[in-house]
From TrEMBL, chain A:
Transmembrane segments: none annotated. Residues 7-258 form the ABC transporter domain. Its main location: membrane. SMART domains: AAA. Pfam families: ABC_tran, oligo_HPY. GO terms for biological process: peptide transport. This is Oligopeptide transport system ATP-binding protein. CDD domains: ABC_NikE_OppD_transporters. It comes from Thermosediminibacter litoriperuensis. GO terms for cellular component: plasma membrane. GO terms for molecular function: ATP binding; ATP hydrolysis activity. It is found in: Cell membrane. Gene3D superfamilies: P-loop containing nucleotide triphosphate hydrolases. Belongs to the ABC transporter superfamily.
Automatic annotation (TrEMBL), chain B:
Keywords: Cell membrane, Membrane, Transmembrane, Transmembrane helix, Transport. This is Peptide/nickel transport system permease protein. PROSITE patterns: ABC_TM1. GO terms for cellular component: plasma membrane. Belongs to the binding-protein-dependent transport system permease family. Its main location: membrane. It comes from Thermosediminibacter litoriperuensis. It is a multi-pass membrane protein. The keyword Transmembrane applies. PANTHER family: DIPEPTIDE TRANSPORT SYSTEM PERMEASE PROTEIN DPPB-RELATED. Residues 95-296 form the ABC transmembrane type-1 domain. One of its GO terms (molecular function) is dipeptide transmembrane transporter activity. It comes from the Bacteria. It is found in: Cell membrane.
């Protein structure tokens, strides 16, 4: 039997209306997240990962951003049809988010405890005292020593890793169904990164939530996600289970990303890189968006855009050399 | 905290010494003899010499300065050459009037400035934003003597709503308080707007929204407290400025405050009075800055007073 999806994003398109022109930051992106599952979303900076996550939260600054088409079904209800007041009851409660920059994501002038209990009081309708107890409990849960004392500290008194733990405590304080983690470990050093990922994995099972893990780091995905969506220049270019993706990447971009991970074993040599850089979204290349950087680019890749090909077993790829048909315009 | 205040007050001593010394030197290099001023241009030279001896003006400069400092430490700033009254008394007599004017205009300015600044920032590029920023620019740029005269013409002469000058009823304070407050309000509005715009782009504001807080709570709880930190400096400095008297406003509206006393002292070469007022002004600024620094610690937990 097909597992019921918690979140289904269908044909989501987000455009930014800027002075220089219209930028399609997210182009007909579709994916879904099952209950209790961790979905990794991978891509370079500017590929539309963060915009997608903010679109789910309906936190994109408008203007300039506008969601021009698509559906975001959360537990069967379209978030794009919700009023702002309904969205506020969902944010921080049923869908929570943690961000890349723990150093700047907490308000410097309030104690961390207050920032956690604020969300609890808002959504759980607890009294002030109960909210404080719950916040302390959350701080303990995320592994902050001496939580009663730490409750009264300010963000600047904590390290980056500690602050990210506080962010996680805040995000999980109302037992959300979905946690969106936007590059949660990018700003942290490697040992702290492992601790935070481990913490997120443990708490995910404990709370029974799903996680959308956005990152540019395939190593992070390998440790946490079951399925992976690879994005490039605003489009999904490949989707696969974690094992399939690492063993047999289909899209040349994914293959390039995997090759550019530095390895300890094997012969030493120069690190592989993907030549070129992400195209300017105001001026996308004709044809496949990856063609200027693609080692396998053929004539058709420069003329037509490939459509996303369903290969069964949850696998999708957008590449002519893997059999994608041209996209209907 | 107490340690910090005491230490700051000790640091103020060299500042006040420096201010006194500079004023003393300046007053001694400008042309004009106070004794001649007192007795008139055609006075008998012997009488002038007698007065100079009496006032101690024939002593070496360092003796005069030392005497001034010694007396100032005991709260005695000498006597006015012109009126013979103690300078301390003249300052303290006029100071309450200036305080009243300063605080009433500061009150209006802070209330108006903060409100306008926050609304402009939240509704950036709206009609309100553009209109209020143009008015604020005009408020900062327009010379106060012109604004004062125009206000007197409109509200006093034509509409007859308010008295034009003098200082007898609270009603007399309204026009000068507003005129004095316009520039203050305008600078607060512009400053608040720019710091607020900076704050609402911060990551923690996104966090607050992601928590599900209403926009009202995001603006007035999470953003405002951060945005106020730099605005407090501006407010503090400006209030110190207002408390030491506004030369033009007090003169135009004939308000017997510290500003008008300064002008009078300067134009009469009343050295002890000028020196006393300058020292008093410096004290007010030192205290004002101290209060600003202390209020920082309350607003911003990152500032610890050491």
């Amino acid at each position: 039997m097909e597992e019921k999806s918690l979140l289904e994003v269908k044909d989501l398109t987000v455009k930014f209306f800027t002075d220089d022109g219209v930028v399609t930051a997210v182009d007909r992106v579709s994916f879904d997240i099952k209950r209790g599952e961790t979905l990794g979303m991978v891509g370079e900076s500017g590929c539309g990962k963060s915009v997608t996550s903010l679109a789910i939260m309906r936190l994109l600054p408008s203007p300039p951003a506008r969601i021009t088409s698509g559906k975001i079904l959360f537990e069967g209800e379209d978030l794009l049809q919700k009023s702002e007041a309904e969205m506020r009851r969902i944010r921080g409660n049923r869908i929570s988010m943690i961000f890349q920059e723990p150093m700047t994501s907490l308000n410097p002038v309030f104690t961390v405890g207050r920032q956690i209990s604020e969300a609890i009081m808002l959504h759980q309708k607890l009294s002030g005292k109960e909210a404080v107890e719950r916040a302390v409990e959350m701080l303990r849960l995320v592994g902050i020593p001496n939580p009663e004392k730490r409750y009264h500290e300010y963000p600047h008194q904590m390290s980056g890793g500690m602050r990210q733990r506080v962010m996680i405590a805040m995000a999980l304080s109302c037992n959300p169904k979905l946690l969106i983690a936007d590059e949660p470990t990018t700003a942290l050093d490697v040992t702290i990164q492992a601790q935070i990922l481990d913490l997120m994995n443990r708490l995910k099972d404990r709370v029974g939530m799903s996680v959308l893990l956005i990152t540019h780091d395939l190593g992070v995905v390998a440790e946490t996600a079951r399925r992976v969506v690879v994005m490039y220049a605003g489009q999904v270019v490949e989707e696969a289970s974690c094992e399939d993706l690492f063993e047999n990447p289909l899209h040349p971009y994914t293959a390039g990303l995997l090759k550019s991970i530095p390895r300890l074993e094997g012969e030493k040599g120069r690190l592989n890189v993907i030549e070129g850089s992400v195209p300017n979204p105001l001026n996308l290349p004709p044809g496949c968006r990856f063609n200027p950087r693609c080692p396998e680019a053929a004539d058709i890749c420069r003329k037509k855009s490939p459509a996303l090909l369903e290969m069964g077993n949850g696998r999708r790829v957008r590449c002519f050399s893997r059999g994608s048909p041209p996209e209907e315009v | 905290m107490i340690d910090y205040i005491i230490r700051r007050l000790i640091f103020a001593v060299p500042v006040l010494l420096g201010v006194s010394l500079i004023t003393f030197i300046l007053l001694n290099v400008v042309p004009g003899d106070p004794a001649v001023e007192m007795l008139g241009k055609h006075a008998d030279p012997d009488a002038v010499q007698k007065i100079r001896n009496q006032l101690g003006l024939n002593d070496p400069l360092y003796v005069q300065f030392g005497r001034f400092l010694w007396n100032a430490c005991r709260g005695d700033l000498g006597r006015s050459f012109k009126t013979g009254q103690p300078v301390t008394k003249m300052i303290l007599d006029t100071f309450p009037t200036t305080v009243k004017l300063a605080l009433s205009s500061a009150f209006v300015a802070v209330a108006v400035g903060l409100t306008v600044g926050v609304i402009s920032a939240v509704k950036q590029y709206s009609f309100f934003d553009h209109a209020s920023m143009i008015v604020a620019l005009a408020g900062i740029s327009a010379p106060i003597f012109w604004v004062a005269v125009v206000a007197q013409l409109i509200f006093g002469l034509h509409l007859k709503w308010l008295p034009i000058s003098g200082y007898s009823t609270p009603k007399h304070m309204i026009l000068p308080a507003i005129v004095l407050g316009i520039r203050f309000a305008a600078s607060i509005a512009r400053y608040t707007r720019s710091t607020f715009l900076d704050v609402i782009r911060q990551d923690y504001i996104r966090t607050a929204r992601a928590k599900g807080l209403a926009e009202r709570a995001v603006i007035f709880v999470h953003a405002l407290k951060n945005a106020l930190i730099p605005v407090v400096t501006v407010i503090g400095m400006q209030i110190s400025g207002l408390l030491t008297g506004s030369f033009l406003t007090e003169t135009i509206f004939a308000i017997p405050g510290l500003g008008r006393l300064s002008i009078w002292a300067l134009s009469n070469r009343d050295f002890p009075l000028v020196q006393g007022i300058v020292l008093f002004t410096a004290v007010i600024f030192v205290i004002g800055n101290l209060i600003v620094d202390i209020s920082y610690a309350f607003l911003d937990p990152r500032v610890r007073l050491h």
